[in-house]
Design brief:
about 300 residues; alpha/beta; 2 domains; two-stranded antiparallel ribbon; 11 helices; transcription; sequence-specific DNA binding; LysR_subst-bd
Length: about 300
């Protein structure tokens, strides 16, 4: 059969939809046309084929035996068209970004919806690791690194935000406490430590107390775990403000001290000077930097 002898594609689509729903009305809603248009398409298809495809019952449709056979074949044909179309379309380009587990969980993941909305043509592969990745050997396109600005000549480092350490806990934990807490009162609470071990410095520098008792408490190898422990009311954690800003805004966490500790370290967006995908890498980098606080460059 020549393609010029084939039925109308619109008629075939109307029949296939009606065969699934057994309703001209529901088929019309799916296709965005009127019920009368679907019924007319199906009648025209039946005239073209010379067979009845549906039995019109009072409240529904029923496929005839030829209609069942035709519907099954047409459905497989549409599936083949969908598969063939997907096969020729280019897949979204995937870029790999290397970040620490805490940055991934507490900063990046809550913002991924915004990234997807702005860049639907890009897939972002997230490598969450404390190990410092290299761009070419680890198949990484960007990295967010914590510490001092990288000095390597083959990379570009842009400041994302400075680290500002604050203490956080649930409001319920301080229900009977007078705020802000003092170093002496702090000893009555469980301190939640991460691998950076900044509690002694915080107590001495910010609270003016002795660091002698600031090493006790629960210890976690990831800051994200200390934050989660604080959210569950287990004690007071010390973390970068940027990791808990949404929890603070929502009232899930509070800062029990009227002070913070500015670190000499920061978070940097790092890219290769010769990226594999320059335009796409630049787009992801621009998106990351669009979320930095207005005082980041100060």
């Amino acid at each position: 059969m020549k393609t010029s002898q084939l039925p109308s594609l619109n008629a075939i689509r109307a029949f296939e939809a009606a065969s699934r729903h057994l309703s001209f009305r529901l088929a019309a809603e799916e296709l965005g046309v009127t019920q009368g248009a679907v019924a007319q398409h199906v009648r025209g298809l039946e005239d073209h084929l010379g067979v009845m495809l549906f039995d019109r019952l009072p409240r529904t449709l029923a496929l005839t035996e030829p209609g069942r056979r035709y519907a099954g074949t047409i459905r497989r044909a549409f599936e083949l068209i969908v598969e063939a179309t997907a096969a020729v379309q280019p897949e979204p380009l995937r870029l790999q970004i290397s970040v620490t587990p805490t940055f991934a969980a507490k900063w990046l993941l809550p913002r991924l919806g915004d990234f997807t909305a702005r860049h639907p043509d890009l897939d972002l592969g997230i490598v969450a690791t404390d190990r410092r990745a290299t761009f070419h050997s680890d198949d990484v396109d960007l990295a967010v690194r914590f510490g001092r600005a990288p000095e390597a000549t083959n990379v570009v480092a842009d400041l994302l935000f400075h680290e500002e350490l604050i203490a956080v806990c649930t409001p319920a934990l301080l229900a009977d406490a007078e705020l802000p807490l003092t170093a002496d009162v702090l000893r009555q609470h469980t301190l939640l430590h991460d691998s950076h071990g900044q509690w002694p410095r915080f107590v001495e520098t910010v609270l003016g107390g002795s660091a002698a008792g600031a090493t006790k408490g629960a210890r976690f190898n990831q800051t994200a775990l200390a934050i989660d422990a604080a959210l569950s009311g287990q004690g007071i954690a010390l973390t970068s403000r940027h990791f808990v800003e949404r929890d603070l805004a929502a009232g899930r966490l509070v800062n029990p001290f009227a002070a913070s500790l500015d670190s000499d370290a920061a978070f940097y967006v790092v890219t290769s000077r010769r990226p594999r995908h320059p335009a796409q890498t630049a787009a992801v980098k621009a998106w990351l930097l669009s979320h930095r606080p207005p005082y980041a460059d100060s």
